[in-house]
Amino acid sequence: MTRTALLAALLLSVGLPRAGVAAETPQGDAGALTPMVQSDSLVFNGVTRSQDGRVFLPFQRQTKDKGIELGEWRDGKAVAYPDDAWNGWKQGDDPAKAFVAVNAIRIGPDGDLWVVDKGAPGMGEAPLPGGPKLVQIDIASNTVRRVYPLQAATTDKSFIDDFRFNGRKVYLTDAGQPGIVVLDLDTGKLRRVLDNHWSTIAQRPLTGQGRVLRDDKGKLLAIHADQLEVSPDGKTFYYQACTGPLYSIETRWLDDETMDDAERAKHVTLFAPTVATGGTAIDADGNIYASDTDALRILKIAPDGSTRTLVQDPRLIWVDAMWIDDDGGLWIPAAQMNRTPAMNGGEASAVKFPTTVYRLQIGAKPVQN
Predict the structure, then answer these.
(1) Is 366 a domain residue?
(2) How many Å apart are CA 349 and CA 344, to the nearest integer?
(3) Which of 101, 111, 160, 237 has the highest local Cβ count within 10 Å?
(4) Is 168 contained in some domain?
(5) Is residue 9 part of a domain?
(6) Burial of 225 (0-12, 13-18, 19+ CB in 10 A)
(7) Dist. CA 119–CA 114, nearest whole Å
(8) How far are the Cα atoms of 5, 46, 52 from residue 327, in angstroms, in the given order?
(9) pTM of the model
(10) How far apart are CA 122 and CA 331, in angstroms?
(11) From CA 135, how far away is CA 113, in angstroms rounded?
(12) Which of 338, 163, 292, 321 is nearest to 239 (CA)?
């Protein structure tokens, strides 16, 4: 059976709706969606929470050179984090010493806040010299502990998107120049793997709420390698382009520096037929939670690849990077990114405020790696 035929069979077997079918009525546990963060002016595309309950969010500036990129949610508002200087970048400033465009954040296994800055000021624009970076922040002292430059592993088409830890390795997706970046935290060494492999390349344009999306210049959007997760035992790496499907490969093949990509590609497996996805999370039992940006729902994908709808609700518009807290709650940022000018053909923002991060009690524990 060809790869295309296999994917079609999987889509039919799990009964996933075709792209363009939006949720009209709540299903599953929609009634248990609890608003945790609401803003009347800010657009965020992720969330993370520390063990002591501090909440951090990456923000998407809607006006050039104005607004914050990373904030801590305090007393019902976002406070620039770790300080104003890191959030005050504007054209002409040194992109190595401030946030140009934060795209992903998470509390690491060490308890620090880790931040990916794609280093490019706009959708589809080339990263600035020194712009792409992974920033480690000590949340006890609220200071930057270390900056890992990523420029050596990027091109002028790169869009470093998201990241996950596996011991002293960090895996990062490049959604612009399709591929995976492997970072050694001890040495700072960078390697690219699965470069331009079909599993890292978007096979169709990006969609949201059943509409094909375009960038602010009117061009069709293709978001390549994007979502990623690492299994609780650290042995399996899951990844996909924004429009799916979800693939897997054993982490040992990513970590093997002696292996060439042609050999590495032989170990890629189709894992689950996800559709257009804004973000994912994984729990300690190996279940993956993935948003569906067309049908406005959250999928729960079991370790065997079987898939079911966890919750579906018309409020879940472009759910982006999710987070599982230590109390078994899934934090769900309804980012509405498809309504912003960067994904809406440059048209005026259609975001409907307040933007909201919901929490759904799922009774699962987070992965510690």
Answers:
(1) no
(2) 8
(3) 160
(4) yes
(5) yes
(6) buried
(7) 15
(8) 41, 19, 11
(9) 0.92
(10) 27
(11) 8
(12) 163
pLDDT confidence bin for 94, thresholds 50/70/90:
very high
Q: Rounded to an integer, what distance in angstroms lies between the CA atom of residue 236 and that of residue 222?
A: 26
Token pair for 183: 């970072």
Asked if residue 244 lies in contact with residue 228, where contact means CB atoms within 8 angstroms, the answer is no
Neighbours of 249 (CB within 10 A): 23
Closest Cα to residue 316, out of 289, 343, 285, 346? 289
Q: What angle (nearest 5°) sits at the alpha carbon of residue 60, between those of residues 57 and 65?
A: 120
Q: In which residue are the tokens 């093997």 written?
A: 256
Mean pLDDT of the chain: 92
Q: What is the token pair recorded at 70?
A: 């990373």
Range of the domain at 244: 3-361
Please report whether residue 367 resides in a domain.
Answer: no
The helix/strand/coil state of 252 is helix
Q: How many domains does the chain fold into?
A: 1
pLDDT in tens, 287-308: 999 999 999 999 999 999 999 9
Burial 127-137 (b: 16+ CB within 10 A, else e): bbebbbbbbbb
The CATH number of whichever domain residue 231 belongs to comes to 2.120.10.30
pLDDT band at 62 (very low <50, low <70, confident <90, very high): low
